[in-house]
Structures are given as C-alpha cells and as structure tokens.
Amino acid sequence: MSAENQQPESLVQIRDLYKKFNISGDFLDQLKFKGGKIVREQEYVHAINGVNLDVHKGEALCVVGESGCGKSTVARTVMGLLTPSKGNISYRGERIDNLEDKALMPYRKKMQMIFQNPYASLNPRMTIGQTLMEPVKLHNPTWTPTEIRDKVHEVMFSVGIDPSWGERFAHEFSGGQRQRISIARALAVDPEFIVADEPISALDVSIQAQVLNLMMDAQEKRDLTYLFITHDLSVVEHFGTRVAVMYLGSLCELAPTKSLFAAPRHPYTQALLSAIPRLEDDRPSHIKLQGEVPTPVNLPSGCVFHGRCPHANDRCKQEIPMLIATDDGGQVACHGVEEGRL
Ligand SMILES: Nc1ncnc2c1ncn2[C@@H]1O[C@H](COP(=O)(O)OP(=O)(O)OP(=O)(O)O)[C@@H](O)[C@H]1O
C-alpha cells in the first residue's frame, strides 16, 4: 500500500461519549410541588452528547467552539479527571476510562495535561526543581538522582528556562515562564500524548506566539500528539493538523485544518469562521447567527443547532444528524449537507 493510502494510526479513541453533571443541589432543593404533590426532581447539564473522535498519532487535533460547548469536559474526560456518563475512552485500543489507579499509571506517563492557568497549576510551596523532579521520580522509580537531575535540566533547557533557576519558586516567574515550566513538567516524563486546555489564553498576547512555537517545536522534536482545546481560531489555523468543531456538546464538523478554513461545510462552522477578521478582500461577509446558544439543561430536539441555523427545515428540528464522511477525509453532521442543499 502506498504511503498516501495508509490509514492514520489512531492513538486515542473517544466513543459515543456522554457527560452530564447533576446540578440539582441538595435533597431539599430537589423537592418540587407539582399537581398537589411533592416530587423529587433532578436537573442535569448535558455537557457532552454522543461525541466520537479519534486522535491520530503525531497530529495536533484542535477542538474549537464557543464557551460552554463542552471542550474542557472532553479534555478532562480523556485524561480520566472526569468519568463518562456513557461511552468510553481508549488509548491505542485499550480502554482506559474504567481503570483503577494502579492500572492507569502507565497511561499517566504517556498522557499529560497542560492547563490554562499557569498560576494555579504550579504548587507555590515547591521550588521549580522539586516540581519538575516529582513526576520524573514517580514514573522512573529505578533512576539514580543524577539521571533525574539530568532529565530535569534537559526539559528546563528545552523550554527556555535556565536550569540554574531550579531553586526558585513559581511566584518568582512571569506568566509566560510559568507556562513554560508547566510544559516542562508535562515533557519531563517523556509523554506521547498531551492534552492542552487553552494553554495560551491566560497569557499576554505578546508571549502567546512564543509559547505556541515552543509547543510546536516540542511536537516535532519529541514526536508528540496533541489534543488542543481553544476558542481562538487564529491559533488553530497555525497549529492544528485537524479541527473538531463543537456546538452544545456535539461534534458538528471535523476536517483537516486547511480544508476547514478554505471550505467549511457546517453552517455553524461557516458562521464561526466568518467572524475572524481577515485582510483579504474575498472573505465571506460576517454571518450573524440569530438568538443565543440554548441551555445544555434542556437540549433542543433534532439538530442542536437548528434554532439558530438559517438553513434549518422540519427534519432538522426532529432528527439528530449523524456524522457523514466528506471528500477531504473529514466528517460533518448536517442534514442540509447530506441532502445536498448546502
Ligand atoms: N462540574 C460541573 N458541574 C456542573 N456543570 C458543569 C461542570 N463542568 C462543566 N459544566 C457545564 O458543562 C458545560 C460544558 O462546559 P465546558 O467547561 O466543558 O465548556 P467549554 O467549551 O470548555 O467552555 P469554556 O471555554 O468556557 O471553558 C457548560 O454548560 C458548563 O457550565
């Protein structure tokens, strides 16, 4: 088989994933007076609703969408920080969402996470050296102190933090430097896969590009795979191999980055992209969506986007669209595209 016909290797598999959060409050909050009787009612936020997604080895898969669409919940569920309400997560074909702590250890070494806020994610009572040494020791129990120190120095150097600063505390560093240290902590255990949840959005605009370049550099040198959560489409255009677009807990489109920006298929993706300021004259005019995103407590019937979609018909109001394959190797969940109307 020629190289271009080969299927990409799937590193992480997200299957039929649902996550709902119980927001009913305590027992007394749940009691409601209805039809002359007291009844107990539970309320849920339906944060993820049937997401299927594969992360390919070596890619940077960006997940985009407006605030509250479920991006972070996908990231946290993949990392085992949240338990799926339904569905499962596999790593190289092995299910990991139901593993006990001990069985999960080898995967914790392979899978690392970088968080949005470098101020909150570093322990203020530990020196940077201690912060970086801790995971190296944990995941390499047979290593000598010299091997551990060498590894810490190597990752500090690779993220542009002087290894001689190991005795300093997190508060002695700027936001950009702290995020570099968080990246170093993730890299210190030689992971294969990194989930980065809005890793640059808390940083000054002037240093966002530096941190992004650092992550791209690390990807190339260390053969990393990223699941990159962001609301910033200009970041995606530079960083992403493929893009997954989410709306109200569902995946509406998945496509190679170039195709998505050149020819978005889903009406929601088209509206999102039309909002990016561009210099070219041929840019599509801004598509202004009607109304607000509905509440994830009471999901709309049919396509979750139908209430705001300029192309919705009766079928869209009733039937949930399935993801269908597109010519460019992507997928789109839209009745209009499937019917050839769009
Ligand atoms: N622990 C929780 N309890 C209740 N609701 C939650 C919880 N975590 C997330 N949610 C809700 O789930 C939905 C999805 O949240 P999530 O943080 O995944 O979205 P997001 O796309 O990452 O948004 P943002 O970019 O603002 O972080 C939102 O409605 C959010 O309020």
Protein model, in words:
The chain is α/β, with parallel strands linked by helices. It is built from twelve helices and 14 strands. The protein has a domain of 70 residues. The strands form three sheets. It has an eight-stranded mixed sheet, with helices on both faces. Helix 5 packs across helix 6. The longest helix has 18 residues. The relative contact order is 0.13. The model has no long low-confidence stretch (mean pLDDT 93). The site of adenosine-5'-triphosphate has 14 residues, from strand 4 and helix 2.
Radius of gyration computed on alpha carbons: 22 Å
Q: What class do helices, strands and sheet pairing give?
A: alpha/beta
Name the overall outline: globular
Unreliable runs = none
Strand runs, count: 14
- Provide mean pLDDT, rounded: 93
Main sheet summary: 8 strands, mixed
Strand order across the biggest sheet?
8-9-10-5-11-12-14-13
The helix/strand series, from N terminus to C terminus, equals EHEEEEHEEHEHHHEHEHEEHHHEEH
| Assembly type | single chain
Q: What is the percent of helical residues? A: 25-40%
State which percent range the strand residues make up. 15-25%
Number of H/I helices:
12
Q: Which small molecules are bound?
A: adenosine-5'-triphosphate
Distance between the termini: 35 Å
GO molecular function, one term: ATP hydrolysis activity
Family: Belongs to the ABC transporter superfamily.
Protein name: ATP-binding cassette domain-containing protein
InterPro entries: AAA+_ATPase, ABC_transp_ATP-bind, ABC_transporter-like_ATP-bd, ABC_transporter-like_CS, Oligopep_ABC_C, P-loop_NTPase
